[in-house]
């Protein structure tokens, strides 16, 4: 769908690059207990695997309460246990959750998901603890890293934690690519944290808005430069297939062509256009061999109806009611579509990394160039060494203006600081820009929920979920 919103806040996530050789794994220091018996998913070449079988994401985005209210559906067993039977009925193997409370316990819900054969794709950010695309330097600070590392601690021990998103739609327009070095730095830091804490190699990567001017450049950027800064996967929020449509009409043929040499696993972190009548014909298309050489499935946006027309069920208290025929259409699309035989055309070698995109009218990462990244903010080193400690949860005071933002460029090798890139860029105007961005974000959300979802066709196609993180920022 098209949303002409210029919000400034975003979410971040990370992944482990398959190109990075496994570091010596030390004794796990996971604080969470392991649940269920689902095998941990691994990456080879450009695909996910469960043991020796290719793993395709058959998923749905799970955001009960919507983007405007930060609730953790996995902290409350009465919530997740109400919905898991429906996930099973749909034949899902993955859910995506956009916000969790890193001070809560998730054993019961993660165990119940594992029992149902379901993995979790988790956004690492919360509305209060996330990058601010309007002021990324200021918001990339130790308080922020402590929160996202605490979330890693909370979920690393579950074998059905499939992956972490280091960010979601932080780049949401042609002109917000200056946030890219920060997203990539967060990805790097999460990978380093996972490694130094001795966790298994849980994949970390970015979930990109479908912005035509920079979506592919962003993909290249997440797969260029030093190994420890390269994402483990790349995910796209894609709403181009609006029934009735086809592989070529939706532009999926072009997408596959464009990404044919991309060496990381790819999938749709959101899909499910609602223009015309949804029949989920694209779900069937997603698991055909013309897609599966390059893509590994996707997640429908979204499970519950939250006011914008994308839900397939409505929820009232403990009652879940399918909306129209969407639930059964998705169920039968998934059930009638088997995975391709063999490995579905995936590349089995790790492939070569991309060149970092050259700067252009559509790709500005100033004040950085090439593969230079911001240094890990000083004050965060202790977390790598000793763990993040207790997370702030959803009610903490937030990180975006908490100070200590990174103002230096990293040297070769992860995260260490060498040179300043411009004094004072993180200070001075920060509070003004933060409050301006917040106003814009809140306004955008209202405008969309009042019916502002337009038709597909513009160059900038931004999904809905980025609004979460914006609305309740302060
Ligand atoms: C990006 O462009 C939009 C629309 O032209 C404008 O409103 C916004 O201020 C710009 N943002 C930045 C960070 O330049
Ligand atoms: C993929 O790589 C081949 C061989 O290097 C090259 O000829 C082709 O143009 C590349 N395709 C894309 C879409 O980059
Ligand atoms: C479809 O449902 C049947 C009956 O529950 C099940 O045995 C089969 O594995 C399902 N097929 C797919 C592709 O999910």
UniProtKB/TrEMBL annotation:
UniProt entry keywords in alphabetical sequence: Glycoprotein, GPI-anchor, Lipoprotein, Membrane, Signal, Transferase, Transmembrane, Transmembrane helix
Classification via InterPro entries: GH, Glucanosyltransferase
Keyword Membrane listed: yes
Higher taxonomy: Eukaryota, Fungi, Dikarya, Ascomycota, Pezizomycotina
An example Gene Ontology biological process: fungal-type cell wall (1->3)-beta-D-glucan biosynthetic process
Protein name: 1,3-beta-glucanosyltransferase
EC class name: transferase
GO CC annotation: plasma membrane; side of membrane
Bias (Gly residues): 388-406
Main location: membrane
Gene: GEL1_1
Its EC number(s): 2.4.1.-
Pfam (any one): Glyco_hydro_72
């Amino acid at each position: 769908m098209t949303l002409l919103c210029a919000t400034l806040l975003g979410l971040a996530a990370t992944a482990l690059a398959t190109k990075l050789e496994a570091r010596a794994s030390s004794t796990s220091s996971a604080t969470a207990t392991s649940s269920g018996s689902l095998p941990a998913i691994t990456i080879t070449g450009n695909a996910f695997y469960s043991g020796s079988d290719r793993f395709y994401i058959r998923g749905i985005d799970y955001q009960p309460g919507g983007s405007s209210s930060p609730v953790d559906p996995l902290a409350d067993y009465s919530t997740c246990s109400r919905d898991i039977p429906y996930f099973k009925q749909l034949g899902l193997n993955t859910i995506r959750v956009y916000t969790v409370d890193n001070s809560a316990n998730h054993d019961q819900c993660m165990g119940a998901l594992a029992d149902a054969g379901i993995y979790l794709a988790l956004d690492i950010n919360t509305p209060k603890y996330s990058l601010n695309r309007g002021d990324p330097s200021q918001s990339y600070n130790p308080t922020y890293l402590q929160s996202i590392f605490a979330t890693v601690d909370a979920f690393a021990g579950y074998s059905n934690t499939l992956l972490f998103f280091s960010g979601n739609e932080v780049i949401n327009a042609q002109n917000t690519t200056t946030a890219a070095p920060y997203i990539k730095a967060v990805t790097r830091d999460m990978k380093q944290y996972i490694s130094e804490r001795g966790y298994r190699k849980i994949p970390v990567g970015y979930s990109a808005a479908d912005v035509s001017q920079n979506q592919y450049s962003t993909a290249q950027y997440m797969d260029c430069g030093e190994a420890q800064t390269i994402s483990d996967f790349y995910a796209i929020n894609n709403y181009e297939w609006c029934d009735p449509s086809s592989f070529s009409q939706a532009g999926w043929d072009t997408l596959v062509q464009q990404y044919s040499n991309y060496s990381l696993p790819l999938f749709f972190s959101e899909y499910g256009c609602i223009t015309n009548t949804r029949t989920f014909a694209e779900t069937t298309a997603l698991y055909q061999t013309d897609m599966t050489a390059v893509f590994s499935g996707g997640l429908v946006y979204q499970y519950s109806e939250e006011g914008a027309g994308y839900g397939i069920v409505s929820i009232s208290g403990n009652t879940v009611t399918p909306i129209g025929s969407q639930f059964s259409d998705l169920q039968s699309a998934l059930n009638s579509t088997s995975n391709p035989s063999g490995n579905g055309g995936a590349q089995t070698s790790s492939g070569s990394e991309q060149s970092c995109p050259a700067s252009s009218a559509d790709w500005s990462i100033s004040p950085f160039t090439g593969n230079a990244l911001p240094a890990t903010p000083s004050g965060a080193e202790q977390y790598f060494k000793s763990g993040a400690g207790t997370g702030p949860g959803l009610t903490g005071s937030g990180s975006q203006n908490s100070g200590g933002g990174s103002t230096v460029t990293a040297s070769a090798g992860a995260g260490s600081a060498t040179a300043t890139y411009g004094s004072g860029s993180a200070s001075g105007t920060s509070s003004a820009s933060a409050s301006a961005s917040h106003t814009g974000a809140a306004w955008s959300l209202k405008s969309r929920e009042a019916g502002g979802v337009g038709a597909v066709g513009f160059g900038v196609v931004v999904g809905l979920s980025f609004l979460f993180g914006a609305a309740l920022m302060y």
